[in-house]
Amino acid sequence: MPKGHHYDRTQTRAYTSEYHRIQANVFKSLLTKPLGNYSINSNDLSSEHQKFKLINLECGVRLMTFSINDKPHKIALIVDNRSASNKLYITCPYCQKQRQSLYAIKYAYACRQCIGLHYACQSERPNERLMRRIRKLRKELWGYDWPEVNNMFEPIAYWPKPKWMRWKTFNLKRDKITELEKKYWPMVDVQMKAMFGHNFMPDC
Predict the structure, then answer these.
(1) pLDDT digits (tens, 9 = 90+) for 55-114
(2) For residue 8, is it within any domain?
(3) C-alpha–C-alpha distance, residues 45 and 104, integer Å
């Protein structure tokens, strides 16, 4: 099941996490490599999704052609010269729009919009979204490797101030997290009682 809990609801949406994704920046080296046959190294892709031919169009644009289910799937490599980093995009074989990533489906590559995929966070309950925000703020303040940083049952009241941070800044950030956690637990309590009845975690 994708990220997020559906409980007794029937899942009707397809999520990005269920499909293998190819990202534009992986192909940046192909802008200067010789033309010819190449392969994407991934155990999650079929051989047809891995092998492609790199050609050069008359306009100077480089094109990757995959033969999937005996049909050509053409993905262009487009460089955005307006950005300082010369950002690379790949085009969707269906809508031809420039994308940062495409998804491998049974007989094709396509963008999220053409397939109709959703991000898992779009199906999150309000308390799940709030929990994700709290964890994000915790990691920004104490770091990703801080013990129990993801443990919502672990109170932050006595977690130390980072050495490089001023007390005023630290107190503001910690108070913000504490405020969000005070909103989070009543929401969880309501959800648990809705799922398991009012005898679950009875009020003191």
Answers:
(1) 999 999 999 999 999 999 999 999 988 877 789 999 999 899 999 989 888 888 988 888
(2) no
(3) 8
Q: Are residues 23 and 76 in the same domain?
A: yes
Structure tokens at 70: 């005996």
For residues 103 and 145, membership in a common domain is answered with no
Identify the CA nearest to 75 among candidates 30, 131, 9, 137.
30
pTM of the model: 0.54
Residue 120 included in any domain: no
Q: What DSSP line would sit under 86-150, residue for residue?
A: -EEEEE-TTT--EESEEEEETTEEE-HHHHT-B-GGGG--HHHHHHHHHHHHHHHHH-TTSTTTT
d(CA 87, CA 77): 10
Q: Is residue 49 part of a domain?
A: yes
For 202, the token pair is 């009875």
Radius of gyration of the chain (CA): 24
Run of H or E residues at 196: helix 167-196
Do 142 and 109 belong together in one domain?
Answer: no
Q: Are strands 20-23 and 87-91 parallel, antiparallel or unpaired?
A: unpaired
Domain count, the chain: 2
Instruction: Calculate the CA dihedral of residues 122, 126, 129, 135 and round it to 10 degrees.
Output: -170
Could you tell me the two tokens for 160? 């130390």
Q: Is the domain of 146 the same as that of 180?
A: yes
| Cα(187)–Cα(128) distance, integer angstroms | 10
Domain housing 21 = 16-115
